[in-house]
Amino acid sequence: MGIFKRLRDLTMASINDLLDKAEDPVKMLNQFLLDMEEDIQEAEVAVAKQIAVEKKFQQQVEEAQDMVNRRTEQAMKALEQNNEELARRALQDKKEHQQRYDEMKQQYDIAKTNADQLRKQLQEMKDEFHKMKLKKETLVARAEAAKAQKQINQAMSGFGTDNAAKGFDRMSQKVLQMEAEAEASKELRSSSRTLDDELEQLGKNDGVDDELAAMKAKLAEKKQS
């Protein structure tokens, strides 16, 4: 059956090849597993049908065998009662049931062989699916790690480059220039003081001279005494 061959042909290499072409490995892996689940469901339906055929032939075989055994017993019972004609008829019918048994047994054996093979293939599909699920978890983790690494690499690609260093140098020079301009403005303010400013400053007393004069007077009084 095609669905069985399709699953048997799936290998790790084919998955990796698919991922190489996929834009989003995680989405592709999920879709891949979904396809496999659908194939398994189809296979389960096919296996169920074959098992039904097997069971049907098995029932017919058992019925034919029962009739063979019954007619044998009935023929013997007829002979015990000296009814040879009835025994003959029972054995004739037994022969027909024996032929039917042989035919049904042959069909049953074929059906059972097919059903057993399909059961085995279905189990192989399920085992393969389980392996792919485990493989998916590993691949998803690797994909997420690679995505994070790529994002970090992209973020750091412009970190500490010549452009950034030159930008810092420009800002440093600008700060130095601002400081120089502030100092120059201070000096300019000092050099531009008017005569009135200086005279006004002379009249200012911060109290130190008064305190010093008081201390001198106190010391002179102490010496006189």
From TrEMBL:
Annotated region Disordered: the residues are 176-210
Coiled coil: which residue ranges? 61-142
S-adenosyl-L-methionine among the record's keywords? no
Comp. bias regions, Basic and acidic residues:
183-207
Q: Which UniProt keywords apply?
A: Coiled coil
Q: Does the keyword Transport apply?
A: no
Question: Which Pfam family, any one of them, does this sequence belong to?
Answer: PspA_IM30
Similarity annotation = Belongs to the PspA/Vipp/IM30 family.
Q: What is this protein called?
A: PspA/IM30 family protein
Q: Which organism is it from?
A: Paenibacillus thalictri
